[in-house]
Specification:
Distance between the termini of chain C: 21 Å
CATH architecture of chain C: Alpha-Beta Complex
CATH class of the largest domain in chain B: Alpha Beta
Radius of gyration of chain C: 17 Å
CATH architecture of the largest domain in chain B: 3-Layer(aba) Sandwich
Number of helices of chain C: 3
Order of helices and strands of chain C: EEEHEEHEEEEEEH
Radius of gyration of chain B: 18 Å
Largest sheet of chain C: 6 strands, mixed
Mean pLDDT of chain B: 92
Number of domains of chain B: 2
Helix content of chain C: under 10%
Chains: A mainly beta (about 90), B alpha/beta (about 250), C mainly beta (about 200)
Number of domains of chain C: 1
Strand content of chain C: 25-35%
Distance between the termini of chain B: 32 Å
Shape of chain B: globular
CATH topology of the largest domain in chain B: Rossmann fold
Strand order of the largest sheet of chain B: 4-3-6-1-2-5
Strand content of chain B: 25-35%
Oligomer: heterotrimer
CATH superfamily of the largest domain in chain B: Nucleotide-binding domain of ferredoxin-NADP reductase (FNR) module
Chain lengths: ~90, ~250, ~200
Amino acid sequence: MEDADLRLDGNAAAGMFGEIFALELTSARARCASCGTIAELGAEPMYVHAPGIVVRCRNCDDVMIVAVHGGGRYWLGFTGTSWIEAREPL
Amino acid sequence: MARAAVLGRLTWHLANVVELVDETPRVRSIALDVPDWAGHRAGQHVDVRLTAEDGYQAQRSYSIASAPEQPHLVLTVERLDDGEVSPYLVDELQPGDKLELRGPVGGYFVWTVEVGGPVLLVAGGSGVVPLMAMVRHRVGLGDGTPFRLLFSSRSLDEVIYRDELDRLAADDGIEVVHTLTRSQPDGWTGYARRIDEQMLREVSWPAAEQPRVYICGPTRLVESVASTLVALGHDPDRVKTERFGPTGG
Amino acid sequence: MPYVSRGFRGRRREGGDAARVPPGQYLTDDFPVLSAGPTPHTPLDEWTFSITGELDEARTWTWEEFRALPSETTTKDIHCVTKWSKLDTEWEGVSVDTLLEGVETSAEYVLAFCDGGYTTNLPLEDVAGGKAWVAFGYGGEPLEPEHGGPARLLVPHLYFWKSAKWVRGLELRADDEPGFWERYGYHNYGDPWQEQRYWGD
């Protein structure tokens, strides 16, 4: 598996996020806590061939979000994300 | 930024396989009836989960090929030789079987009329699937947004949805440009190489017209096309990508 | 219980000695690649391996110095927390005992640190006593970058996320500091035979 194949787009996490959050997040914007870049979560590179999903900043590559699902539980780490901004639904 | 959709908690549905259509020797479309399906938007995908008798599970994501207006949910799957899930879906699954799926998923790689246009769709092989949902949605609505599809396939026999695209190309506003990268039929006058900057210059709307771009396919094609378009001046926020990676197996 | 898909077998290897497969695991003949980030590519003339932290003097080896150390081959079963197990994998590497030889320390824990920022934590006794290596060869060939090359930690008695890829050193610590996956929900120790996958298991 080539390195390029390990890195997918934000849509790859949409399934797990959809089980946890009531709002659709991959079209939400997020700010990287390391470099301040703001982008739609769907546009950020994601690594899903891992024990969990890792979302990295497309600018500086630092880890923004880690999501683990197993043993009947979810763990969500947002340490690398300053905020997530989602519009109110209609 | 679009308004967020309220999901409620995504759960697994048990869908009924209604019909199977062979698109190409390696690609099959699966029409599903999904009880309690809440609808979807063009470009979204579903996660499919298979469970063996001993509890072993495999899960993959597949883009929805059907437009929201169509009566059945359609997935189009390419059999990967070393795949674990795709050979089952393409070769084994039969009408009457059931399939566990979760969705619809993904709000980033979506086209609705509100998004506007003109719309450039760039597909590599089975990357055409979510883009076809967008095409079918535009046609289904009778909407007039200009749509142009640049579609890279290995050979004419392997062009997914070929007949349907030929018909839609006759429709006003849907332009289809093929490139066949490995072999071409006698008399072929179209592109015969991988998508490159020159081809994009010739096919794409110029950046000044601010097209909405959706690129889907193997990672290398997606990255190359996206970076080329940005280098040609397109706003990165208007260039959306869906890398298939190797998960479509 | 999820719906059983008629006729689905999956790409497992059948047979194999059940006594060698921990609970909840499936055998594979592949060697799946899992990663939390892009593959690093440190040139060998810039690569070093270090022992740092609770010892009198930090130790560092260049690639040449590291490869000049006594090394050994070892055949082990490996178990990934994502449920695949692979039996009889062949590795070549330097025993961590060799790297720690002569080190006097009061540390009880190590934190492995790697190119790309990955970390994982272990009790010191779990990387000593012939239980761990810094491996540079797999299957008789140099370890490929996607599998952690030029060198990775190899600790086969624990889930394979503890066998940190692209390892650059071990920090000896008096206290236990959770590494990357341990901070995000995975088990602090990770014994496959007790199925210690997640925090609190």
